[in-house]
Amino acid sequence: MTMSRFSSILIANRGEIACRVIRSARALGLRTIAVYSEADHGAPHVALADEAVLIGAGPVGESYLRPEKIIEAARVSGAESIHPGYGFLSENAGFAEAVAAAGLIFIGPPVEAIRVMGDKAGAKRAMIAAGVPCVPGYEGLDQKDATFIAEAERIGFPVMVKASAGGGGRGMRLVEEPAELADALTRARAEALSAFGSGDLILEKAVRRPRHVEIQVFADAHGHVIHLGERDCSVQRRHQKVVEEAPSPVVSPELRSRMGRAAVEAARAVDYRGAGTVEFLLDDHGEFYFLEMNTRLQVEHPVTEMVTGLDLVAMQIAVAQGEPLPLDQDALRLDGHAIEVRLYAEDPAAGFLPVTGDIALWQPASGLGVRVDAGIVTGQTVSPFYDPMLAKVIAHGPTRDIARRRLVGALKETAVLGLSTNAEFLIDILERPDFVEGRATTAFIGENYPGGVKETEIDSLSLAMGAALKLTLESRKALAASTLPDECLIGFQSAAPLSSRLDVTLAGKLRRLSGLCAGKAWTIAEGGDWQHRIEVVRIEGHEAVLLAGGKRQTMHWSERHDGELLLAIGPRRFTLKPHRPWEDAAAAAGSGRVVAPMPGLVVSVLVEPGQTVEAGAPLAVLEAMKMQHTLKATARGTIAEVRIAKGQQLAAGALMVSIEEDAA
């Protein structure tokens, strides 16, 4: 790798990581260049950079995954170096090679290190040769199903099927029984080919209930390699990290030293430079096994920054310019504890289905020890083309429990309106006894949510608060159009006060409410079932302060042009929709209709007209937001119509399959 001083950086990425790199680069006095797709023309990273270059249409295959477009953007902007961020081309050896061939500095490891570690099979062979502990498995070149079946029998079930060329849970399947292996191989190959351009697989013995502990390593061009401690990333869903923390609650100084030495040896084995992460599985006996090495900055790097006081992006830039590391191993100090969660645009109650839509309001938390890394703004559209992560919320504290409690508070204060998020689910994780007591393993979510995540019903007090706010907003609109001189006259009547009627739909259910106003206070009722007195103390911007149930409550809100009121009270999110009777009839007519929940590509069609299906039977597989999603029948019946074909691109709401449901 050629190293020299440079004064400009092109960031070959988008979203929060592009913003993160831009901030550190600008703090160092470097000129920053962003790249963006047509879908990202209004994204924050575009506005934050000194310059931005359009590189193509929304789909990643037409923009962010096109090396030649990235390099051309660097040429026309005069960029001298390229930072790949994470994801996309960050671990693509061919891209790093093309960057160097274009006379640019690649802010990352040498091409050969990326190539070796980017192939799980090759990486595992290299680690075995270097004496790094590895999980028993098969990483051979023979990719025939018969070979995998024979090797799985040798290793012993359960086994993990993994994409050789990638990570992030894509192309990965847990196989418990021999009969499940053939289908797992087919599905994993298809997903791996789509995500990474390679369908090659490996097998590994499944380690039951391990912890996922990774070591951050850093190396310079002067032969220095150090580690910066560990991160515990055990809380995962579908092998994708949900919560990360540093340090691990179960790693002792002695174990940290052993794992750190193994990680350093892994980096030395491939002549590493820059930031990298060596991931291990840690069993309950304190034995650890090499999993993979990520040759880039990790999503969860902020927790390491918060406990070490280091800026890892600034260190990457310094190493790429040929500077030595700013500290040696003996100088490493870990201060306190940090925990990070990933805020996703997804619906946990619907099987964590990713969602798309417009962000009606984005208001991140702030406060002592709280950091929010985001790449979104109010009004931005969350498209189906990219990973559904919206932001990372991180909290630091002198102890693990203080960091945990600060993070819970930060999540309650962070408002995202306009689409579903996993915020309430994240809070629930952080408050589960297994997590509070530091006992979480990779089995945590499966063990704590065996039936999936249930949708939280909105209680009557929250509904009353939303109704009081809606009636107040409507009263203000009426005041603005009237000749009343002052807001204090809202609700004044010389005769007995009249009740305002409010018919709204909440979670698809009609709620007939009434409100009686006395100054700033409303008495909200639903027939004779309940009533609550709500005082609207003040409304400033999109934040309202209310007195309800004897407590002072803060509510975030945003109103759509069609009258829908989007609301957030702590982690709870709900929408009050004006009741429209004609929509009830339309919904009833839609029984048996299976529609695309988001824009996506039809990967496979699993049924045909005339076929009888049971409730829960798979109907089709849709690929969207970099993952495959199986659409299932909601009731027993006969397939009346199939409107889709393999390879078809669907819009959200498009009819896929119609089912003539059996009579109950």
Automatic annotation (TrEMBL):
GO MF, any single term: geranoyl-CoA carboxylase activity
Extent of the signal sequence: none
Domain Biotin carboxylation residue range list: 5-450
Required cofactor(s): biotin
Gene3D superfamilies: 2.40.50.100, ATP-grasp fold, B domain
EC number(s) recorded for this UniProt protein: 6.4.1.5
InterPro entries membership: ATP-grasp, BC-like_N, Biotin_carboxylase_complex, Biotin_carboxylation_dom, Biotin_COase_C, Biotin_lipoyl, CPAse_ATP-bd, PreATP-grasp_dom_sf
Domain ATP-grasp residues, every copy: 124-321
Keywords: ATP-binding, Biotin, Ligase, Nucleotide-binding
Keyword ATP-binding recorded: yes
This protein's record includes keyword Nucleotide-binding: yes
Recorded superkingdom: Bacteria
Domain Lipoyl-binding: 591-660
PANTHER family given in the database record: CARBOXYLASE:PYRUVATE/ACETYL-COA/PROPIONYL-COA CARBOXYLASE, METHYLCROTONOYL-COA CARBOXYLASE SUBUNIT ALPHA, MITOCHONDRIAL-RELATED
Descriptive protein name: Geranyl-CoA carboxylase alpha subunit
Species of provenance: Rhizobium aquaticum
